[in-house]
Design a protein that fits this description.
There is one protein chain. By secondary structure, the protein is mainly α. It has one domain. The protein is built from 3 helices and 2 strands. It has helices at 6-15, 32-40, 51-64, and strands at residues 22-25, 43-46. α1 crosses α2 (32-40) and α2 runs parallel beside α3 (51-64).
């Protein structure tokens, strides 16, 4: 299921941006949590088994943070 970037962003902010070093999303989907992390300047790792969803997430995150490394394995 897709959801707006503001939902993971609110969760990260609720946890505390200052004390959050990394965000891990084992079900990346289209990358909302990755975008929220990029907006907040937090390192992010996400996993997605569906190659179409992964490609969409990679494109979205790369468009927002092109200098960041987005890799497939």
């Amino acid at each position: 299921a897709s959801f707006p970037v503001k939902i993971p962003r609110m969760c990260i902010e609720l946890h505390g941006v200052e004390r959050t070093k990394h965000v891990l999303d084992p079900f990346l989907g289209i990358g909302a949590s990755g975008l929220a992390s990029a907006e907040l300047g937090i390192d992010f790792v996400g996993f997605e088994i569906d190659s179409d969803y992964f490609e969409t997430a990679r494109e979205r995150i790369s468009a927002y943070a092109p200098a960041e490394s987005v890799e497939a394995d």
